[in-house]
Amino acid sequence: MHVRALTLPLSLAILAAPVLPFAIAQDAAPAHVKEQPPAPAPARPFHLAPRTRYTLPNGLTVNLLEYGTVPKVSITIEVAAGKVNEDPQHTNLSVLTAELTSEGTTSLTGEQIAQRSGDMGSTLSVSGGTYQSSFAMDVLSSNAADAVGLLADVIEHPAFPAKDLERHRADALRQRATALANPGFLGQQKFAQILYGDQAYGRLLATEEELKSYTLDDVRGFYKANFGAQRTTIYVVGHFDEKAVRTAIDKAFKAWDRGPAVAWADQHAAEGAHFAFIDQPGAAQSNVIYGIPVADVSSPDTTQLQVMNSLLGGSFGSRITANIREQKGYTYSPHSSLSQGYGTNIWAENAAITTASTGPAITEIQKEIKRLQDEPPSATEVQNIQRYEDGVFILRNSSRQGILSNLNFVDFHHLNDSYLTGYVDRINAVTPEQVQETAKKYLKVDGMTLVVVGDPAVVKPQLTSFSSQSN
Fold first, then answer.
1. For the chain, what is the mean pLDDT?
2. Which of these three, 220, 253, 286, is where a domain ends?
3. What pLDDT sits at residue 41?
4. 310 and 239, same structural domain?
């Protein structure tokens, strides 16, 4: 948690300061002495109200959780239909299908859907993902039942109007062109292709030919094969009348066909060292991704991995950030992360690095990994990271949408609510020795994948030692 200091305007600060004789002012502490920040506050436990969870006869799952006193409610409906359910030659057909559901139903036009959601003080948000298609609204509590009805109509009775297909196709083609002009995305795409190949995680972008080929029959076919009650989960979080919401859900969804069972293909990341370079002549900076598969969220090592990541590169005060940003000035915003996918997980450091410093920066990243493997961090350093993680977690759960997102995360990974309620205690139980051992166990420098997008004339000569290590 970051505490914002109170800063007076310069003129007021001068007036507020005590007037000291010049001789006394000379005895003040030298300007280069850095003031120590206050010690981190003790961790606060996280409390989660019990949720009501039940299943309709057709297999649809409902989750209700009372949260807060503001008379608003967040409703999200997740349908287990996404990129993992596509044919490999139909990349992002699931996204197009999800988007078109909001363009009209058998009883409402797209304009009427937008008008009704607006009358509730909300917008209907629809998105397609790797595993799920999401439908969401955030409304006043008095409109919760009506929002459930509107969401149900969109999900159960899409009309897929022909007039909107071309507009969404054009949008997708523009987004594709924009993405391919972004060197950061090019690096991410290549990194995903190396690790996951033709699997869903490896197919970030549809080809132009695919997007131009999709028809309404393709959209309707994907919907029919993948949407149904037993693939659907409803989350309602906020301050609401539970009886009224349950009645609305039963009325809106009880007649929906059971549909297909959940079917998700496993995603397996490639092992071993890999190297790829994408030419961008004249680039002033290189986009670098450097990472490796690690244990997924179901592993007992998941908490240690979280602390290790934040200490090494996943927080603003991390070691890699301090090294290549603060000390060396190689990059402005380096950051490491854990992808935490379903049954798979990747630790990766991302950075946009000045062209001339690309090789040295990657060397420093490796040095920081090896330093953590060679000796455990201090107890104070680990405690600071633990307090950071505690604060971020509490902040993420300080809103209806945050709670809802975490409930979906828990269900998606087949965990239980103790994952959330025990998170702070687990984070604070990690020891410096465990952080070291986790780095040694998972961050094998000779098994890393490195992708660089940059100026080949300047950068490639800096990378000969890295490219020679790859498969």
1. 91
2. 253
3. 66
4. no
Which candidate, 94, 408, 84, 418, places its Cα nearest to that of 234?
Answer: 408
Residue at 38 is within a domain: no
The answer for residues whose C-beta is within 8 angstroms of residue 375's C-beta and 6 or more apart is 436
Cα gap 256→286, rounded to integer Å: 51
Closest listed residue to residue 205, CA positions, set 181, 229, 239, 175:
175
Which of 97, 66, 67 has its CA nearest to residue 79? 97
Residue 470 pLDDT = 60
Q: Looking at residue 23, what is its pLDDT?
A: 35
Per-residue pLDDT tens over the stretch 375-391: 999 999 999 999 999 99
Residue among 343, 383, 438, 335 nearest 39 (CA): 383
**CA-to-CA distance for 95 and 130, rounded, in angstroms?**
9
User: In this predicted structure, what is the pLDDT of residue 6?
Assistant: 33
Instruction: Give me the half-sphere count of Cα atoms (radius 13 Å) on the Cβ side of residue 111.
Output: 1
Q: How far apart are CA 390 and CA 400, in angstroms?
A: 18
From CA 156, how far away is CA 380, in angstroms rounded? 54
Residue 275 CA to residue 273 CA, distance in Å, equals 7
Beta sheet of 61-66, edge-to-edge order:
52-55, 61-66, 232-238, 72-79, 133-140, 125-128
| CATH number of the domain residue 452 falls in | 3.30.830.10
Question: 298: helix, coil or strand?
Answer: coil
Dmax over Cα atoms in the chain, in whole Å?
Answer: 86
- Domain holding 407, by residue range, is 274-467
Residues 6+ apart with CB under 8 A from 405: 396
**Cβ(194)–Cβ(75) below 8 Å:** no
What is the predicted pLDDT for the residue at 152? 98
Parts of the chain with a pLDDT under 70: 1-43, 468-471
**Same structural domain for residues 249 and 279?**
no
Same domain, 85 and 214: yes
Parallel/antiparallel/unpaired status of strands 232-238 and 61-66:
parallel
- Residues 291, 296, 300, 304, CA torsion sign: positive
Amino acid 8: pLDDT: 32
Same domain, 221 and 298: no
pLDDT at 468: 61
> Phi then psi for 79, rounded to 5 degrees?
-110, 125
Q: Position 433: which residue type?
A: E
Measured between its terminal Cα atoms, the distance across the chain in Å is 42
